[in-house]
Amino acid sequence: MLDESVPDDVVLTEAGTDRAGTSNAGTDRAGTGGTGTEDAIAAEFHLLRPRLLGVAYGLLGTLDEAEDVVQDAWLRLRTAVAAPGGGEILDVTGWLVVTVSRLALDVLRSARHRREEYVGPWLPEPVVSESVRFGSVPSGSSRSGSLGSGSLWSGSFWSGDPLERVTLDESMSMAMLVVLESLSPAERTAFVLHDVFGLPFTEVGEVVGRSPAACRQLAARARAHLAARAPRFDVDPSEHRRVVNAFARACVGDDIQALLTLLDPDVVFRSDGGGMVTAARRPVLGAIKVARLLFGVRRFGEFTMTPAPVNGRPGLLRFRDGRLNAVLGLESVDGRITTIDMVLNPDKLARVSLTERTI
Fold first, then answer.
1. CATH tag for 12-17+121-160+233-355 (out of 3.40.50.2000, 3.40.50.300, 3.10.450.50, 2.60.40.1180)
2. What are the Cα distances from residue 110, in Å, to 144, 205, 208, 254?
3. What is the pLDDT of residues 156-188, one digit of tens each?
């Protein structure tokens, strides 16, 4: 019989651990003068806002900071438009993308030290679409039990007002954002702006303050660094959904062997409690240790698993006593889970818990 207790070498961070302070930094830049009515500019900004949030989130990994950056760019645009005698903004979209990227790069540079001192692994704030859900699986239920309408994934997903959505590229998964943290701020900016959002290197150069040729080198170094570490995106979505479905069943079931069959032998488990709740202080490696950990934490109470899109890919929400207490981003290859990123930090779940709906 496999021991189902938390492995002895897995160090859990207890709630109440001190956290590093937070700050917001950004360098003021003078805007160019503007043309056109403020209403027209505001309408264009509103249409662009989801894309701008996506750019800022791809660079920063947090929605709060991304929203601050986009709002700052909007205020600068209004100031530039209203400035008497200023030059004409011929390309509002380009101006906003460059300005948002510059501000995000400034915040990213200032955030690196805070994230290095973060308690335990730092994970990005998950972007979870609101959902209408059926068939949440309670822990302790039979692995082969009914899920109501036959699948964890029955139901439809929506995101409220389309203009309030964050436009995320499919590559901005939780696992990819974790890997991006290993790049320098300039490398990350060059890669995200050019390879993900398609900006030419001339515009990337305006953001990072380097020549287009230098930015091309930054992006090339980022690609080389990511080649061996980035998650695969050639996995069939329906297959990944099937694996996540089975993983949810196994996590709440009573058969640890069923869970082991779904975990890659080299699976990596990361949990982010931010010092506010109990979480593993270091990544947990290997199928047996991860399975024991997932079963061992059940001593803290029973829970349910509910599917939801996490950063645009099938993921899971975990509830205890009817309250959200974790969001899981998962990656799979060849029918097995290779990466589990579990966000437990209440600060990073606040946005999700406010919008979560069940029927």
1. 3.10.450.50
2. 49, 20, 15, 46
3. 222 333 334 566 666 788 888 998 999 999 999
